[in-house]
Amino acid sequence: MTVVKKYLLRFHEIFGDFKKVILHITDTLLLLMSLLGVVCMVYYFGFDIYPVVKINLETFFEFIADTFLILILIRVSFRRNRKPQALFFDIIVILLLGLMALEKYTFPQWFQSNIPLLSFFQKNVVIYLITITIFVIEISKRSLFIYLGKINPALLFIISFIFLIITGTGLLLLPNATTNGISLIDALFTSTSAVCVTGLASVDTQFAFTALGKGVILMLIQLGGLGVMTFTSFFGLFFSGNDSFRNNMFIKDMINNDTLADIFKNLLKILIFTLVIELIGAVIIYFNIDRIAFPDEAANLKFSIFHSISAFCNAGFSTLSQGLYDIRFRFNYPVHLVIAFLIILGGIGFPILLNYYKLAKHYSHNFFRKIKSKSYIHKPNIININTRIVIYTTLALLVFGTVAFFFIEYNNTLKEHGLGGKVVEAFFLSVTPRTAGFNTVDYGAILPSTILLSIFLMWVGASPGGTGGGIKTSSFAIALLNVFSISRGKDRIEVSRREIADDSVRRAFATIILSLLAIGVSILLVSSFEKGEKTLAIAFECFSAFGTVGLSNNLTQTLTSESKWVLVFTMFLGRVGTLTIFVAFIRKVNSLRYKYPEENIIIN
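Structure (tokenized):
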């Protein structure tokens, strides 16, 4: 009996090792099939190919999809102790690919007539979109392995943006992405502008790009606005269930979460907030479009979706050559207001949205407790000091900008509007320099004082954790509070019975100094390349690039290649943050175990 037991244990060990080998080979082949499928579809849609090659390519893609289905079945059979969400993904994939296989291999007519879903899969485009989505999710699941290395979150954040910019550049260089082709620098400039949600365009987006090219730009805006690692981490956590402590530590820093608790839930909330807000924005824009503006409803729908995503991500890209200053939308105030509020919601930061979501959740609980006649009503202190500073600073800048623009541009660019229209456009002028970049007036005709005020708003930018750029409202607020604190003789900054940490003060001033240094170098270099242009127009362009705004004095498309390269780096620095660059490449000291004697330095 002992001998039998011994052989059974040995067989179990060998079979266990065999399972591990099979699963490792299966996972590797699944990744390979996913990559081949994506490359195949890029070639299929991106190039003009002969009909014979097209048929062969479709056959090869079908082979990849069938192989992928078989590998998924093997994975489900051999790996039974998986987390529910990972198993759920594999089952959904088997059902989808299985239904497509039923239609593809022309099973008996009974299947066609008794399974209505099969008719849905008879369109090639639907099949390709579903399959590509499955492939992308499978690739994204591998993103969590990046966190297992010794790379720090700041460097990973930078690398993800560089990777996305390079990928976007390649996709925009595809023959079918443009009408007449564009140069490498223009593709790089457009890709960087989309990924960094800037909106500066070196070519006319409306006429230079095809539907495929505009789709690529929209994808880059969405991924760049939220961060490509946000999407891949979500897919990785949800569909693989790999929520290790190290993975959660990286994602916590990436999404600015305070604690390790509810990492996945907050990731899910961020994506849901984004999709819901963009969907609501698109619907409202759609129903406020003049039906004679576009030839058909499909064009209305495309316009609404593109501009809703572009506005929420603070990108500023438009499918119209003149932007919202186009005569069809110049006086469409409801659309202007919707886009303005989408910009504010996107730029205010996800930590703020999550904070108010938590508050609304507590209020709803209290409401139901009152209905049930409960005596105890919980009143938590949910709105933290970060939220208060961001909200107050944002409101102050919006009010100040609206009033200032209203009086400065009253008889200039706003003169063609009535009183109500002037108020709406002044408000929009106050919102859009805060890293959005949409224009409802001709920025080539604005007054110098308006340019200077716009430069200031572009420099301040949006809020931390949002989709915008700039030094951020919190840094600007801390700098101002520090001035008032020193003036009153205090040795610390106090707000709403809270003391601002010294680390936050140091980071705010480092961010301000580095931003001015980066912008100064950018202005110096562009001025040396564009000798015939006014310095103020160049400064406006450089501040717009660093603040990831996208506003321009009609200068971008006339720039030399050298100036475009400078602005590419400026946009990148503005999106990832100059301080992030230093944190990524300079070794971090965890703690200092010594302290030198203090000495005061003469300041003034």
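The chain is about 65% helix and 0% strand. Residues 1-145 form one domain.
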